[in-house]
Amino acid sequence: MLDHLTTEARNPASEDLDELSTLDLVNLINGQDAAVAIAVGKQAVPIAQAIDVIADRLQHSGRLIYFGAGTSGRLGVLDAAECPPTFSCDPRHVVGLIAGGPSAMTNAVEGAEDDPALGAGDLQCIGLSAKDVVVGIATSGRTPYVIGGLDYARKVGAYAIGLTCNENSELHSHCDLVIAPVVGAEIISGSTRMKAGTATKMVLNMLSTGAMIRQGKTFGNLMVDMRATNTKLHARAKRIVTAATKLPEKDASSLLAQCDGEVKTAIVVHLTGESAEQARGLLDEAGGHLRQAIAGRTKESGC
User: Fold this and answer.
1) 169: Cβ–Cβ under 8 A, 6 or more apart, which residues?
2) How far apart are CA 173 and CA 162, in angstroms?
3) Which CATH architecture has domain 6-214?
4) Quick one: pLDDT at residue 99?
5) What is the structure's pLDDT at 111?
6) In which residue ranges of the chain is pLDDT below 70?
7) CATH number 1.10.8.1080 given to 231-301
8) What are the tens digits of pLDDT across the range 81-102?
9) Which CA distances in Å does 230 have to 78, 91, 135, 227, 267?
10) Active site amino acids
């Protein structure tokens, strides 16, 4: 039953929704959305715990796998799809699954979320193993597709994280860690693509971004783990190298060319005075962490 779920409750603030002026409607939605970040912030501890687990699994050849139904599944697929272009990670390392398959991204597949065996089956089809970490996304905290997937994940030894927007949900007993930002009743009762969807997107952003930062994908707040392979990316790479090295754009461009368009390599070459080949070796030794690769080796240090 859904009657007891916070996300299915009627919101007193929007009971006269259809009588509001357009401006009042916009202000109401905006005011309700303002509480979403607060709800997510209250889950900082489990979100941080999840990031550490995800980073560790990725570091040891595991994968991050999102799965869910409807809006929850779409948001997981979206976050997974954005990781390769943002962090130059292998598309196989962050995976998004949605109940009903790829066609469910744009067309509702009715009933797909109601079978726990489908959740387990989808994870089995991608060869889920004990190295992996899964994030089962279910706003209600009771979606059978997600519950079945989480149970299968734990059976094979994968680390199972549940993401819901309801407290003390059924999901809690089926995973190793729960993230539960409680955003309250929606403006339109049960329309969880709104506040719950926003909270879900915020959490997923934190999980993937945090894990990638822990993997050494950034240098400060610069997106350094990229390779310039086209005109747009070369312009971005040049800006990043310029910001990290203080070189003029022309010199940054030349440096990138010497390093086959590899941003990290170019920065290490400039800061340490090493060759491109030696810079790659330093990065490998540091596990891809640029700051560790240059530690004690900058030209200014005299090493």
Assistant:
1) 5, 138, 140, 141, 142, 180
2) 10
3) 3-Layer(aba) Sandwich (3.40)
4) 93
5) 75
6) 1-4, 299-303
7) yes
8) 999 888 888 999 999 999 999 9
9) 23, 19, 33, 9, 19
10) 82, 113
